[in-house]
Amino acid sequence: MSTSKAYVENAIVDSSRLANYAVIQETSPGRRFSEPSCQTRTEFQRDRDRVIHSTAFRRLEYKTQVFINHEGDLYRTRLTHTLEVAQIARSIARALRLNEDLTEAIALAHDLGHTAFGHAGQDALHECMQDFGGFEHNFQSLRVVDKLEEKYPDYNGLNLMFDTREGILKHCSLKNARSMGALGKRFIDRTQPSLEAQLTNIADEIAYNNHDVDDGLRSGLITIKQLRGVELFDQHYVDVNKRFGELTEKRKTHEVVRRIINELVCDLIGQTKQNLNLHNISSLEDVRSLNIPLASFSPEVKSKNSALKSFLNKNLYQHAQVDRMSTNAKMMITELFKQFFNSPDLLPDEHRETAYIKEKINGASGVARVISDYIAGMTDRYAQTEYNRITNHNRPTE
Ligand code: MG
Predict the structure, then answer these.
(1) Same domain membership, residue 340 and residue 293
(2) Would 283 be classed as within a structural domain?
(3) How many independent structural domains does the chain possess?
(4) How confident is the model at residue 145 (pLDDT cuts 50, 70, 90)?
């Protein structure tokens, strides 16, 4: 038996352990450019590895989640957020007998298109790109893995599997969807992606709500007293306090956050199993043809989770200190775009050449997209350095 045949048989054995509604590589639409299979890894393990070895993945280390990178060494960055999403998503996938390799690949790639300075950076870039199709970090993540990474001799991008790309593209305008063939079809038909994609989306939310509670408390921008007004936090705080009253607040907080994550994960698994039964789901086609997602919290937990989200929105993301950082970040991104757009000669050589090529094909919007890709790829500190170089100012981020 040849080695490659042995691999194929192993992969089939591996897939047989999965639920009949899981994604399996044997029936996947596969890659855009066909490639020989790997002798040691499944196709989705290969996708995960391609993401980990990408340049965009390494940049996540220096991109803001909520707190600017230099504000403290212990806050989440876009990279540690991504790793927490992957951990939570994999646990859920395994419990539901879904494809864990695919789930991990989607989770690790889900924020590759995020700009520097968190949501403030994305909002500013979107405004700059208003006349040229806008900017959306989710769509940009797909652009990174489909077009912008330059790692392979035969094609641009990472040539990921259809199902990984489907999971990365969480939202998409109808206009964009129409230009994307099979990948855009579900946005037009209003149907759903795989369960692996659905659960990773919720794992993202579980991760950021909880680590933002932790980071928020660490920063002092929110307090335990305030959080006690949030049911999901308070119910666990009361239990932990009763059982471990002697512990420091810091240790108690970690226990509370751990319990909240556990409640959300267990509820999501239980409710999703119920939904699968309710809708008689017996195949991946069943999952994809529904017009509602199957991965969901129970109504009770959904409402408790929404209350936590609203709390963080009001008290952390819109906190005056975070807001000051956001205003400054928006100013820098906007100025960078303006300066590069008015004088493309200011772009580094490689991007300048691409801008001139794209200008011949798509005019001003071609140039704008090259600039947008360049700015979106910047880490926080690189954006600051470029801003200083371009404007010859030296304004701090705070
Ligand atoms: Mg995320």
Answers:
(1) no
(2) yes
(3) 2
(4) very high
